[in-house]
Amino acid sequence: MAATTTQVEHSDQSPASAAGDQIWNVPNALSMARLGLAFFVGILIEFQQFMPALFVFVVAASTDFVDGWWARKFNQVTKLGRVLDPFVDKIIITAALIALVGCAGSGIDAWMVTVIVGREFLVTSIRAMVEGKGGDFSARSLGKWKMLFQCAAVVSSLLLLDGVTDAVWLVWTTSVLIWLAVLMTVASGADYVIQAVRLARNAS
Fold first, then answer.
1. Shortest CA distance to 67 belongs to which of 39, 37, 32, 91?
2. In which pathway does this enzyme or protein participate (predicted)?
3. Whose C-alpha in 41, 126, 137, 139 is 20 to 30 A from the C-alpha of 82?
4. pTM of the entire predicted model
5. Distance CA 85, CA 34 (A)
6. Domain at 16-203: CATH code
């Protein structure tokens, strides 16, 4: 009878709930690897190794798609992964941008990075509050566009600093991309605030 009860208890656990309780799997391992690469990018920029930093940054940023695809494809979406993945995304961008601020001619100003980092703190705090109450605060399209322009700005700035091509048009390209990144950062931050207010009103 005890064995039967144990079997029933185990059968009640769905694959999704079992996956959600896992800690180490391929997507989370990739996220941890990306975290290490993010710090490596910052170090390379500090030592003015711009082309190696560009290569490592592209690898780190591109694996974001891989771990997300793997988690959905093989049902390995976990509670840790839902927190770790966006956290690592923020570290990849902020580590590169903060390091680039200290490089003369990068085209990236300190106030721009302050806006970007401030938005990340705001959205992270709101997400923790909403999801802590059981709400859904998934990524939105503006946030994805924000990430795209931020990555493009980092790549353009690193190419500019490395001097591999004509700097005239690249200066303008970097300037346009970082301004678009800042504008999308502000817009996506406002979008998340509006979403949080709506969720709070619906919950009350």
1. 32
2. Phospholipid metabolism; phosphatidylglycerol biosynthesis; phosphatidylglycerol from CDP-diacylglycerol: step 1/2
3. 41
4. 0.82
5. 9
6. 1.20.120.1760
